[in-house]
Amino acid sequence: MTETESTTVVRGACPHDCPDTCALLTTVENGRAVKVQGNPDHPMTDGVLCTKVARYAERTYHPDRIQQPLKRVGPKGSGQFQPVSWDEALDDIAMRLTAIAQRDPEAILPYSYAGTMGQVQGEGMAARFFHKLGASLLDRTICASAGAEALTYTLGNKLGMKMEFFAESRLIVIWGSNSIGSNLHFWRLAQDAKRQGAKLVCIDPRRSETAEKCHEHLAIRPGTDAALALALMHELIVHNWLDLDYIERHTQGWDALRERALQWPPERAAQVCGIKVAQIQSLARDYGTTTPAAIRLNYGMQRVRGGGNAVRAIACLPALVGAWRHRGGGLLLSSSGHFPVQRAALQRPDLLGERRPRTLNMSTIGDDLLRPASTEFGPRIEALVVYNSNPVAVAPESGKVVQGFAREDLFTVVLEHFQTDTADHADYILPATTQLEHWDIHTSYGHTDVLLNQPAIPPVGQARTNTDIFRALAARMGFGEPCFADDDLTLCRTVMGDEALFARLQQQGFAALPVLDAPFAQGGFPTPSGKCEFFSPRLAAMGQDGLPDHVPNYEAPSEAFPLAMISPPARNFLNSSFVNVTSLRAIEVEPVLEIHADDAHQRGIQNGDVVKVFNARGEYHCKAEVSRRARPGVVHGLGIWWRKMGLNGTNVNQLTSQHLTDIGRAPVFYDCAVQVASLKGPHG
User: Fold this and answer.
1) Residue range 109-119: average pLDDT?
2) Are residues 554 and 396 in contact, defined by beta-carbon separation less than 8 angstroms?
3) Distance CA 156, CA 148 (A)
4) CATH code for the domain of 654
5) Number of neighbouring beta carbons within 10 Å of residue 238
6) Is 624 buried (19+), middle (13-18) or exposed (0-12) by CB count in 10 A?
7) What is the pLDDT of residues 541-581, one digit of tens each?
């Protein structure tokens, strides 16, 4: 933090769900944040922010920011509220939750995700509160659990290459990621490697901004990534592009994997994936003969039925060619397993005592809100406390989610910055602080630095931190344990349990973890066997296939719904965050569906027409963009717009299902078959 007479520059961290976890500098003049920029002293950030976060001050001072507690006065979903005092709101909420908890605390459900990635304002005091209460637990699956669990079954944890060493790679395969939009600092490293002669290959159904800037693009069908990975293994085997010494020393299950891979010649995979045989052969040759070769895997490709198997198959590839021997080789999906977060000390699951509440999956909230009480399910959900999430917009099959949130007998509290689709259905909206107004500790899933966020400005209006809100509720509900009095600086210190590290964070805002440059050069995988587990005994013990395989999508194209739909984020949004930031919405303009010219022509659709995208779950109206970004047979519903901003009051999640992935119990947003029809003309 630096100061002049009227200007202060405060160090912080970006709170959003992105691998880059950028270090921020916020310039404050006379108590008002006037500029948010990247910290040039942080090597990963290097002074550069994405377009979204560079506008964070605009979001903080948005005229629609909720600045005082609001109580519902109209029907659920009407968005009709009146201001109330904090005391009135907290007293009533505590009274209502206490009454429900006396009957059955499992009838209360927290619902949260990555509205902030901060350890303190995320599941710090909140987790303590719900553990003490004995509320139902939430399985937080909506983004990454399929890939994360699959990686753990193969490599032992969410570990991989250090991001900075992609700059040394000679081949970079960007798999399931639009890095320009969602991993900007990795893309800058990939560009460094490209300038040094590296080849860049993108695997993505969509010809994204990243794909069009790579040397090669494999536009596979959604959900066919494992088939491609197995075909690459086939070619590595038959051409002997293998590191047999590494396989012998540091892997488990090679003979079984070899047998399976030999069932996947490029001709078979090309038919499944919808690409040319020569593309598979060329990529296999490049991967098998280029040193070092690196894979930047991201979460887009695991949002299908077989997403876990696909991640497992891809995660086997570096061990086959010995890519892990080099710091510029290997794979990175997530680095979050490197961080020694003291979760038990922070979240205090011991407050549960002997109780073992049920666990509900956040991805099936639509069905679960509509379930009656039963022996199998347990009590009906009577109360929902939502923070750091907007489930009415982001959860799958949102028609059911809306129906559940509209229940007049459901007591709903929402901690928010804005009146989102979810907040419209609340009984109380409590104004929460933004990142510029509170303390927090941030880890990363793209690099291996810890960051400290310091408040740059006082809370706007009557906004309170998540931690303050849960502390206040705990006091009103008689929770007397000393841990509920911990302030935010104490919680920050608790996260890593390392005072020397915290002192470094206070001094410079970030600190690098001591991580090996090439973590698996000598094997040492944190699996039970200590090896890269091509065959997973743990999965086999659960009745699953111990080997990775291609698992077809739930929803194959049919006569009724012949198009596969994926719903990647619009470049200037992050899930449903930033949708209401005026300057960013002006860039995106309106909800669109990218469609290939052939598919548009067959349906009489012209560029700019309003179209109806539909399946058995519902329909979504948006503008058609006849685009070379789409391959034939696949459409892209760019998201995630708030439903209230949709042309017919819905968004793309009206169409997605509540099916779950093969591993990790995650949603299958990109496993969705639809039909598209023109509504004739630009106004429908």
Assistant:
1) 95
2) no
3) 10
4) 2.40.40.20
5) 13
6) buried
7) 999 999 999 999 999 999 999 999 999 987 667 666 777 77
- Phi/psi at 111 (nearest 5 deg)? -135, 115
**pLDDT band, residue 683 (cuts 50/70/90):** very low
Single-letter code of the amino acid located at 168: E
Task: Let me know if residue 3 belongs to a domain.
Answer: no
Number of domains in the chain: 3
Nearest to 287 by CA among 201, 372, 407, 160: 201
- Whether residue 299 is found in the same domain as residue 182: yes
pLDDT at 5: 61
The reply to whether 324 and 462 lie within a common domain is no
- Structure token digits, residue 502: 């915290």
Q: Is the pTM of this model over 0.85?
A: yes
Classify residue 409 as exposed, middle or buried by CB count within 10 Å of its CB (0-12, 13-18, 19+): exposed
Same domain, 159 and 268: yes
Greatest pairwise CA separation for the chain in angstroms: 72
Which two tokens mark 264?
């996947």
Distance CA 511, CA 509 (A): 7
Kind of pairing, strands 563-566 and 673-678? antiparallel
Q: Give the position of tokens 């040397």.
A: 215
* Residue 587 CB partners (closer than 8 Å, separation 6+): 51, 572
- Is 193 in the same domain as 225? yes
Beta strands 411-416; 383-387: pairing state: parallel
Calpha distance 312→233 (Å, rounded): 13
Residue-wise pLDDT for 168-178, tens only, equals 999 999 999 99
In a 13 Å sphere around the CA of 370, the CA atoms on its Cβ side amount to: 13
What are the φ and ψ backbone dihedral angles of 153, each rounded to 5 degrees?
A: -70, -20
Q: Is residue 25 part of a domain?
A: no
* Encoded tokens for 113: 């995700």
Q: What's phi and psi for 131, nearest 5 deg?
A: -65, -45
Residue where the block lists tokens 């300038």: 195
Q: Is 253 left (phi over 0), alpha (psi -120 to 50) or beta?
A: left
Q: Where does 410-498 have alpha helices with state H?
A: 466-476, 488-496
Q: Which domain holds residue 300?
A: 146-333
Q: Which amino acid would we find at residue 303?
A: R
Sheet with 330-332: list strands edge to edge.
216-218, 199-203, 171-175, 293-297, 330-332
Q: Is 235 part of any domain? A: yes
**Assigned domain for 491 exists:** no
Structure-derived torsion over alpha carbons of residues 181, 53, 653, 426, reported in degrees to the nearest 10: 170
- Average pLDDT of 114-121? 95
